[in-house]
Amino acid sequence: MLYIVATPIGNLEDITLRAISVLGSADFILAEDTRVTRVLLDRYNIRVPVISYHQHSKIQKVDHIIDLLREDKKLALVTDAGTPGINDPGNFLVSKVLEALSDCKVVPIPGPNAAITALSVSGFPMDKFVYLGFPPHKKGRQTFFKRIGQIEETVVFYESKYRVMKALEELRGVSKIESRSVMIARELTKQFETIYRGTLDQIEMEMKANKNSTLGEFVVVISPRGKNNREES
Ligand code: SAM
């Protein structure tokens, strides 16, 4: 059995009872960064051997994991935060495991995810939304932002602290969504959780006024075209 276990995106209390029980009864926990996962495991007194598995892990590591599954070991995959596979390692391992062991049970243990957490407080129409992951750093960045301007539905993407202000400029200059409502969620579930809401101008002004506002982790949400914003429908 391979369990794909969602873990907190900040607040260590945001973990399900089932996740604690699965982690506690696993033979091995596969972790993106063992130091990050240790903090969580210590909090819940979980004493299970941890194996490192991350995006740069070699194929031999995948083979070793497949061997453990062949020996009927119960494995639990976690990443640094949120739901494994959503913009972090996970999918590759799942696909390789299913390729090698078609009868292996891959079991999802649901829980936090930063994009869904941000969307849940946006107030924007959520019958449909488009999730775009991270914008590329360089090549393809313009295209990414151009595409956002053409999307009708609510859009959500992740951005790092190094480029979040740049992203605001690009949403204005390249996406041309200055009349749409925007929400930026910073440090969700953590001590300095901040939700910025408004037009691009309003948010930019607010973030520039506070020098700490660009520290931490960010999710950007944009309202649909012509709805819940100042654009004519
Ligand atoms: N698998 C994760 C999930 O389920 O949300 C996402 C992993 S991705 C590598 C990490 C990115 O998610 C961060 O750079 C940030 O954009 C977003 N993120 C994660 N935790 C967050 C938090 N507490 N507040 C805001 N954004 C967060």
TrEMBL record:
Chemical reaction(s) catalysed: cytidine(1402) in 16S rRNA + S-adenosyl-L-methionine = 2'-O-methylcytidine(1402) in 16S rRNA + S-adenosyl-L-homocysteine + H(+)
Residue ranges constituting the Tetrapyrrole methylase domain according to the UniProt record: 1-203
Keyword Transferase in annotation: yes
GO molecular function: rRNA (cytosine-2'-O-)-methyltransferase activity
Class of the enzyme per the UniProt entry, highest EC level: transferase
PANTHER family: RIBOSOMAL RNA SMALL SUBUNIT METHYLTRANSFERASE I (PTHR46111:SF1)
Free-text function comment from the UniProt entry: Catalyzes the 2'-O-methylation of the ribose of cytidine 1402 (C1402) in 16S rRNA.
Protein name per UniProt: Ribosomal RNA small subunit methyltransferase I
